[in-house]
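S1.2 Input.
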Amino acid sequence: MQWYNTGAGADLKTWRAVTNTGGTLVFETVLDNYSAATGRFALSANGDATVISPGLLGYSTGAGGTVTQVTSKVTAVTLHKPTGLITTAADALAAGATAAFFVTDNLVAAKDVPIVMVVNNGNYEARVYNVITGGFYVKLQNTSAGSLSEAVQITFVVIKGANS
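S1.3 Output.
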């Protein structure tokens, strides 16, 4: 099997998949017909996926979205994406206090593992505390010594899970 991208000029690379005798499907890139292939990703016969060369594993540009809370840090948000950025409302959150809100996302199942992280702000911590089909709950805690009234950016990614 071979696949080719539709790039042009210096960005033109050939993508191909090669199956070795062990049954592993290896995805490689080749700059041109004269260059050696570079293995990028492998999928074994038993389903193990491996990133071979230095690179990133995740969602590509366009897979995510953004949403902003309108009223307060406890206002639910809706974003039907596997990854995204939530911007909270800028209302006050006392020192040590937490605010909880629900993220409605029709891509989330009860067995999935959403991961959240506060972006560029060391005064808060965020965590997921409950996952149900259709979304998940987030707790945001002010870890500073004083009350803060600012919009906080929280990024999330959903890892699909299974019960068996």
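S1.4 Remarks. Residues 51 and 62 are 21 Å apart (CA to CA).
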